[in-house]
Design a protein that fits this description.
about 400 residues, alpha/beta, Archaeosine Trna-guanine Transglycosylase, Chain: A, domain 4, Transcription Regulator spoIIAA, Rossmann fold, 3 domains, seven-stranded mixed sheet, six-stranded mixed sheet, 20 strands, about 30% strand, binds S-adenosyl-L-homocysteine
Length: about 400
């Protein structure tokens, strides 16, 4: 096996089981590994540190897998990690059949993301190491996940680009999915477009939708950034009086309306457009809501963009607060990993001050358990949110 050596003092993070080693930390190699090959990583004094997958096209040159010397990373090793990932999700099966089965580094499997959507698996191979094992993963998933009709690949997005890998789509095994796959989540039904370029369904918000629905009773609800209506459907099931859907995507609004109707509800109104404008327009026309849900896309994709993103979050929360009637609720989220919980709460606090409103946080939100946070990799914690009463 090829060995590579870390620069002096650069082993600390790796020894704490953080799975990423950047190109600048590596100084010497005993050979030239192929893309995705597993190599031995040693400290500058020759001490064993870990085994990791080599990613030549990425700044993250190695993704570490195993820290115990003497254990080899082979098919049985990958199968054991998959078993652990599946065991974590098993208790969720009674509540839903749309969930993430493997969450890459957070499950000890760098670059591998597996979403279950009804009887289909949607798999992303986001690193050279994961990509190299496409056949093995298809076989293992077929063996270990029961009741499947097909496995499709949807390897795209920025992650793969940063790894220097082309997009790759297609059926890896079994039947191609129908245009829409019907799934259930805590008693609600959703039709998910598995073939869609975008993520078909945000299962990371499952528990948060459940809690938000608890305060929806009797409320006129605004679901801003509604996508396919996850919050809207659960709010109506929670006996909201009506729901206004807002999103910049016409297709998302159509899907959200469809999902509401499938559950026996009709939206009060659909508003297509930029939320920054929509919220202002609603305020101008004097509209008020008992509950506003704000679930914007990732406004801070990098650490460098945090300042700008915080201004965006502040503005959205300020506008949203102006729409909440006294005693009503705001459920506000950020899925930017680079924005931490403290920053996010501060943003809401500043927005409350500027809006002249008193805000009481009653619950803090995170990502659903099918998106675990690995403590040795803080980057795996990205979704945060607050449920707040507004006076
Ligand atoms: N709340 C949703 C997920 C939201 S995903 C759920 O529970 O499923 C983010 C959504 O924001 C996407 O549907 C996207 O179309 C929309 N979006 C992105 N930028 C926007 C903008 N500037 N104004 C309004 N919607 C936007």
């Amino acid at each position: 096996m090829i060995t590579c050596f870390l620069a002096p003092g650069r082993e600390k993070l790796a020894l704490n089981h953080h799975p990423w080693v950047f190109s600048g930390a590596l100084v010497r190699w005993t050979g030239t590994p192929e893309a995705g090959e597993v190599v031995r990583v040693c400290a500058s004094d020759g001490r064993f540190v870990a085994l990791g997958q080599f990613n030549p096209g990425s700044k993250i040159r190695l993704r570490l897998l195993e820290w115990n010397e003497g254990i080899s990373v082979d098919t049985a090793w990958y199968a054991a990690r998959l078993d652990e990932a599946l065991a974590l999700r098993r208790p969720l099966e009674h509540a839903t059949d749309v969930l993430r089965l493997v969450f890459a580094e957070a499950d000890g499997l760098p670059g591998l993301v597996v979403d279950k959507v009804g009887a289909w698996l949607v798999v992303q191979f986001l690193t050279a190491g994961a990509d190299r094992l496409k056949q093995e993963w298809t076989q293992l998933l077929r063996e270990k996940v029961h009741g499947l009709k097909g496995i499709v690949e949807k390897s795209d997005g920025d992650g793969r680009k940063m790894e220097g890998l082309e997009e790759s789509h297609g059926v890896l095994w079994g039947e191609a999915p129908p245009a829409r796959v019907r799934v259930r989540e805590n008693g609600a039904l959703f039709d998910v477009e598995v073939g869609a370029q975008k993520t078909g369904f945000y299962s990371d918000q499952r528990d948060n939708r459940f809690f938000v629905a608890q305060v929806a009773s009797g409320a006129r609800v605004l679901d801003a950034f509604c996508y396919t209506g996850g919050f809207a459907v659960h709010a109506m099931r929670g006996k909201a009086s009506s729901v206004v859907l807002a999103d910049s995507s016409a297709e998302a609004l159509t899907a959200a309306r469809h999902n509401l109707e499938m559950n026996g509800f009709v939206p009060e109104r659909l508003v297509e457009g930029d939320a920054f404008t929509t919220l202002r327009d609603l305020k101008k026309s004097g509209e008020r809501f008992g509950l506003v849900v704000l679930d914007p896309p990732k406004l801070a994709p990098t650490r460098e963009s945090v300042e700008r993103a915080l201004r965006g979050y502040k503005d959205l929360n300020l506008q949203a607060l102006a729409l909440v009637e006294r005693g009503g609720w705001l459920a506000s989220f950020s899925c930017s990993g680079a924005v931490d919980e403290k920053m996010f709460q501060d943003v809401v606090a500043f927005a409350a001050k500027d809006a002249g409103r008193t805000v009481q946080v009653v619950r803090r939100f995170s990502q659903a358990p099918c998106h675990p946070v690995r403590t040795s990799m803080p980057e795996s914690f990205y979704l945060k949110g607050l449920l707040a009463r507004v006076l």
